[in-house]
Amino acid sequence: MFVELHDGRIVGFPANRFRILAAATDDQLAQVRLELDGYALRWEALDEDLTVPGVVAGRFQLPP
Question: Can you tell me the distance from the alpha carbon of 20 to that of 64, in angstroms, rounded to the nearest whole number?
């Protein structure tokens, strides 16, 4: 997954480092929305939320 930040940086993270996202299909992963003025990523169908600062800091749920 890739997120473009307000300052123009593009940050990537592996979806498989998060329990719910690891089991998601590519189509499900594509259904992400930015919420809270860009602070959070939301997958409604998966009932999953991640914070952008958490992703940037590398706070993953699962080991590589």
Answer: 15
Instruction: Enumerate residues 6+ apart whose C-beta is below 8 A from 21.
Output: 1, 15, 29, 43, 46, 48
Dihedral angle of Cα 1, 30, 63, 37, to the nearest 10 degrees: 70
20: helix, coil or strand?
Answer: helix
Q: Which residues share a beta bridge with 50?
A: 41
pLDDT per residue over 1-15, tens digit each? 999 988 999 999 999
Tokens representing residue 52 in the block: 């952008």
**pLDDT tens-digit readout, 31-54:** 999 999 889 999 999 999 999 999
Residue type, 15: A
